[in-house]
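Posting for a labmate who doesn't have an account.
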Amino acid sequence: MSDPPRKRMVRPPSGGADEGRVVAKRLKTAKVRTPSSQAWLERQINDPFVTLAHARGYRSRAAFKLAEIDDRFSLIGRSARIVDLGCAPGGWLQIAVKRGATRIVGIDLLDVEPLPPANIVKGDFTDPARQEEILSLLGGGPNLVLCDMAPNTTGHRQTDHLRIVGLVEAAAEFAIGSLVPGGAFVSKAFQGGETAGLIALLKRNFARVRHLKPKASRAESSELYILATGFKGQ
């Protein structure tokens, strides 16, 4: 007598969440693509957060990073004044708007599609004139400063890391110079040396400094986020 047929266990599509397995897709190699661009494109098409971002109308997968951080620490409130440094293409602005914030200013060197009620400034946030413009549009000091910036890379790891650290330090100095007491600062950073000075600066000015690795940050990436809360004031 033959054995009865085995039941097949079928898991439904996960829609981009962590659960479920997806067969990796490969792109046909194009002569005009470099190996690095080919690898980047393959990561994109196989990234569930990219798929989910498209499905939900987010401008970038980075939206899920801020959403997770806010879920854990409740940084975004309706009465909060928020500044987003390096806001293009607008994924973090979308999360701030979706969660009820109405006083938001984003700034970037690139053009950013409008996203009311956020105000968007084109320019360099380190320019004192742009900083005055940001605070004027905001109507006072921010409760939350966000920074998801990364400079253009040179291909030299140490040089790129130093440039990233310098950019985050500039963002931290802006936050320290503008936040209201009790405010918070969230910034992308990368694992590596040369961050001791940055962490020491934040610890002098905030009650607590944490390192975070949101689920939407690729596991193989050295990317992490710094969260500084409880700004001590000037």
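Reply:
Got it, the structure tokens are right above this. The chain has two domains: 25-57, 59-231.
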